[in-house]
Write a structure and sequence with these properties.
Blueprint (H helix, E strand, L loop, with lengths): L5 E6 L5 H12 L2 E4 H14 L3 E2 L2 E2 L1 H7 L5 E3 L5 E3 L2 E2 L7 H10 L3 H17 L2 E5 L2 H5 L5 E6 L2 H14 L6 H17 L12 E4 L5 H16 L2
Parallel strand pairs: 1-8, 1-9, 2-8, 9-10
Antiparallel strand pairs: 3-4, 5-6, 6-7
Bound molecules: 2'-deoxycytidine-5'-monophosphate (DC).
The site of 2'-deoxycytidine-5'-monophosphate has 12 residues, from helix 2 and helix 4.
Length: about 220
């Protein structure tokens, strides 16, 4: 078997990393791994076990349970937590508000990083997150770092929510995005940073077609080397 290929995609929240990763994985028939979903699944586990309630976190109990927290993805890309499909639960507000607290625990990160590395042993993968090109796979074959301005991301999110019939203010979304950027890039453990050898893609003024054509040309160039 040829050596599995690793494509690492990092970047700010809401920059379209996961759409990009999904598109690439489907095109090349690689496995897509959404590492944010893994941190979300651990958060759901902590909530369901009663370890995370409001501002209280029973950290030791969660750390002790880490070897039993089995996370994987089914063929539709849905997240499975100990065999149960939790895809819709991990996208809800309760998990979204708790996840940054869980993602800063070094023991949780190290357990997730181990699982992420194992996933690449038998498959070529496209993995997206915050620390993939820096910590998980510093030797990834292709590294992309995706950004777009906070204002553009807020506008896109507003359009998505409005299309779903939700009423939210643009300023509220912008504030939330700015806060998340700050938390992701200023935390002590594995903060979001661009790996020196990552290719930066600022898609603030790019259409999806332009973005797809750019990333395809980057990946094609690598695969033909
Ligand atoms: O990408 P997302 O919004 O689903 O990520 C959820 C949370 O997990 C967010 O707080 C960032 C964090 N995360 C992380 O710390 N490291 C990763 N590799 C992926 C996500």
């Amino acid at each position: 078997m040829n050596k599995p290929i690793i494509i690492a995609i990092d970047g700010v929240s809401g920059s379209g990393k996961s759409t990009m990763a999904r598109t690439l994985a489907a095109k090349y028939n690689f496995m897509y791994v959404d590492t944010g979903a893994m941190y979300r699944a651990v958060t759901l586990y902590a909530i369901e076990k009663g370890y995370l309630t409001g501002d209280t976190l029973l950290k030791k109990q969660l750390i002790d349970d880490l070897p039993d927290i089995d996370i994987c993805f089914d063929s539709d890309g849905h997240t499975l937590l100990c065999g149960i499909d939790v895809e819709s639960k991990i996208r809800g507000m309760e998990v979204s508000s708790g996840v940054s607290k869980i993602a800063t625990i070094p023991e949780v990160r190290s357990a997730m990083v181990d699982q992420q590395r194992k996933m690449s042993h038998s498959h070529s993968v496209v993995m997206d997150g915050r620390d993939i090109g820096t910590t998980v796979f510093p030797n990834a074959d292709v590294k992309l770092y995706v950004t777009s301005s906070a204002e553009v991301r807020a506008r896109r999110r507003l359009d998505e929510l409005t299309a779903k019939g939700e009423k939210v203010e643009y300023d509220t979304i912008l504030k939330n995005i700015t806060e998340r950027d700050y938390i992701d890039s200023s935390r002590e453990v594995s903060p979001l940073t661009k790996a020196p050898d990552a290719i930066e893609i600022d898609n603030s003024h790019m259409s999806i077609e332009e973005q797809n054509s750019l990333i395809n040309s980057i990946v094609e160039k690598h695969l033909s080397m």
